Known about the structure:
By secondary structure, the chain is α+β, with helices and mostly antiparallel strands. It has one domain. It has 5 helices and 2 strands. The chain has helices at residues 5-10, 22-32, 35-46, 56-65, 76-90; strands at 95-102, 114-120. Strands 1-2 form a two-stranded antiparallel sheet. The longest helix is centred in the middle third of the chain and has 15 residues, at 76-90. The N and C termini lie far apart (31 Å).
Amino acid sequence: xxxSFDDFIKSFPSCKVLRDSVSARHIxxxxxxxxxxxxxxxxxxxxxSPALSACAKExxxxxxxxxxNDLDLTNDTVKQxxxxxxxxxxxxxxxxxxxKKRLSRILKLKYFFNAxxxxxxxxxxxxxxxxxxxx
Length: 135
């Protein structure tokens, strides 16, 4: 089940830095909680890669190209809070943080360099289902 942006903000004291951010709300609701992005996060985690690699490029592009962007991706607290957003979105699949790892240089990121790798630990309330069906 999705944790609302407002509940997420209340979940950890440093998250309050993004409480009034329109950009943070968009990133949380429209990028990080997007089903396709969440599936890519699970796949990245299973491949022992940081889950953020599934959407870091999209987050950076949004912040760089959106008029009125109110997020400063040079601020470590902002980046850590985005990492917490990722953790909250992948937790329903039974994944918890296990280590930190450098993000791939192939992504050519400007602001994100390291991120959390998540491992499956069980207790999921959601799961990804893929199947082939005849047309």
